[in-house]
Amino acid sequence: MILEQYYTKCLAQGTYYIASNGEAAIIDPLREVQQYIDRAKEDGVTITYIFLTHFHADFVSGHVDLADKTGATIVIGPNAVTSYAFAKAEHLQAFKIGNLSLQLLHTPGHTMESSCYLLKDEEGKEQALFTGDTLFIGDVGRPDLAVKSDISKEDLAAHLYDSLRNEIMPLPDHITVYPAHGAGSACGKNMSKETSDSLGNQKKTNYALSPTLSKEDFVKEVTTGIAAPPAYFPKNVWMNKGVNSSIDEVIARGITPIKLAAFKALAEDPDYLVLDVRSPQEYTAGAIPGSWFIGLDGQFAPWVGALIENIDQKIILVVPEGREKEAVIRLARVGYDNAQGYLSGGFDTWKNSDLEVTTIKNCTPQAFIDGLEDGSVKNPIDTRKPGEYETGHICSVPLHTLSEIHEEVKNLNADTTYHVHCAGGYRSVIFSSIAKANGIKNIINVEGGYGAIKNTNLKNQKIVATSNCSL
Predict the structure, then answer these.
(1) In 3D, which of 71, 87, 66 has the Cα closest to residue 6?
(2) What is the 3-state secondary structure (H, E, C) of 274-288?
(3) What number does CATH give the domain 245-351?
C-alpha cells in the first residue's frame, strides 16, 4: 500500500494519493493534475477513482481534467449535482483500489454532500479517515458556506454535530485522520498547523469531539465568530460543479511573454490589472504605477481570491524569471484563469526603459515607535486580521484589516501620510500597493511588521490584548 499526502502550504490544502496492486485513487486533487499522473506512471499503477469529499469553495479542483486524462471515475457523495458525469455514491458504499477499499461515510454539515472516506487495508482493518472539511485537526468545517433559503447555518451545524457523533466518533482510536485543510485556511476558525493526527488524540483534544458537548452548545460555538468568507468562494463552488477550461490552456495563455510596448499599452487599459508577484522588498524599491503587489512567497492564492473581486479579471504579470508558470498555476488554483501573459524580461525591462516607476518608502520598527512618541507618525494603520489585533496590538494604532481594503481606501485621504504594518511585512505591502493604485500618495511600510515592532524599545507605547486601550 502507498499512501501519500500532497500538502500545498499556500492553500493549506491536502490532496491524497493511494495505490495498491496496480490501481490508484486521488482524493481532492488540485487543478494541476499532471503530478498525479506522473506519480501513477512511476509506481506502475492506473488511476481508477477520483474522490471528492465535497464541492470545495477555497480552490478549484482538477477532478474533471484528471478524469478526462486518465479515464478514472469521479465519485462524490449524496446530494451532489454537477454538469459532468460522476458516480453518486451512497452512504457506506465501498470502492476497491487494488487490495484496499475506501468506504464513503456521508457526513453532511459543512455542506450537504460532504463525505468522509474510510480506508481499509488488505485484511479489512480500518487504517485512515479522509475527512475533507468535516473534521480538521483541532477544529471542524465552518457551517455557513452552503446556506440556502431552506437551510440555515444553524441547521448545517446541527447536521455536522450528528455526523461527527454518528459516523466519526464511533470509529477506532488508532486510525489516522487526514483532513483537507490545516492552519491558514478560511474553511475553519482555529485549525492546527499539524496536517494529520490519530482519531484517538482528536477525541481527547478537539473541542468538537468532546463527549460532554451538547448539540446546542456545539451549534453556538461553530456559528459564532466566523469571519465573512472570501468573495471568490461561491464562484469556486460553482466551478467545481461544472466543466472549466483545461489547466493546459490556462497555462499556455498565461505564460505568453509580452514585449514592453504591448505590456505598457495593456497596463494603461482599465480592463487589465498589473499584478506584481515579486518580493515585498523588490516591489517597494520600484514598481509599475498602478500595479498591485501580491507576492508568490506568501499566501498568494487566498489573497488573490480575497482582493481581486472579479474572478474573470484580465491579469498581466510582473514575475521573477523562471516563476511564470508557477504564478499562472497558483492563480488558476482559485479560479483566476484569465492571466494573459507576463512582462518579457521582468521589471528590469520597465525600469531600464525610462518609464515611470513608483516606490513605497520603508521605515524601521524603531523609527515607527519613535514617530508615535514624538508625534511625527500621525496616521498609523494595522492591517492584520481582527483576531490577531485582539490578541495584541499597539494601543494607539487602529485596525484597517487588509481584507476590507476596498472599503477602507474610501476613507483614506489622498494627501495624508500613512504608516502601515501587518504581522511581518507581506500584507502591509499588499495594502500599500492597492492604496497607491487608488490615489493614496504617501504610504510608508513598517518593515518586519508587528512581530518586529513589539521587540523594539516601546517607550510609552502600550501593547494591549483588547480593542479598549483605556484598560
Answers:
(1) 66
(2) EEECCCHHHHHHCEC
(3) 3.40.250.10
